[in-house]
Specification:
Shape: elongated
Largest sheet: none
Helix content: over 70%
Number of domains: 1
Number of helices: 5
Number of strands: 0
Radius of gyration: 32 Å
Distance between the termini: 31 Å
Strand content: under 5%
Structural class: mainly alpha
Length: 147
């Protein structure tokens, strides 16, 4: 009966270790996603400027102001020409590389955690728990008499 109990304790510890590893992977992934979103927000002003100009062009189209539309289209074209699309692509590439590095680090941490779980001397731990139980059991019986 004690062998089944020690096996259960072993598996519970293994499950707890794996749960910690999964949590670590989720934290690393969340950090990567947060970093990606933070970098993408830096381009929000440029996108907002373009959308504002497109909105102005739409309003002018409704009024059939062709000259204003051409001027607004030229402004949008100028803004697009000034936008560093290559820089944006490089930043996205860098973010992807950082996310990959985070996943590699998480994988290495999982491997280390697995090695530590494998190195855990479950039999010695079970024996220590059994010895503690045997030492405390007489005290529990003694205290139980006063209830």
């Amino acid at each position: 009966m004690e062998t089944g109990s020690s096996d259960m304790v072993k598996w519970e510890r293994i499950k707890a270790g794996l749960l910690c590893c999964i949590l670590l992977v989720l934290v690393a992934f969340t950090a990567g996603v947060y970093s990606l979103l933070h970098d993408l927000r830096s381009y929000e002003d440029t996108v907002q400027s373009i959308l504002t100009r497109v909105d102005v062009m739409t309003g002018q189209l409704e009024e059939l102001d062709v000259e204003g539309m051409v001027a607004a289209a030229n402004e949008v074209t100028r803004t697009l020409e000034e936008t560093d699309l290559a820089g944006i692509a490089e930043n996205v590439d860098a973010l992807v590389l950082r996310a990959r590095d985070s996943l590699v680090t998480a994988e290495e941490t999982l491997a280390q955690a697995g090695e530590k779980l494998d190195a855990l001397d479950v039999d010695a731990l079970n024996q220590a728990i059994e010895d503690l139980k045997n030492a405390i059991e007489p005290l529990a019986v003694f205290v139980g008499r006063f209830k």
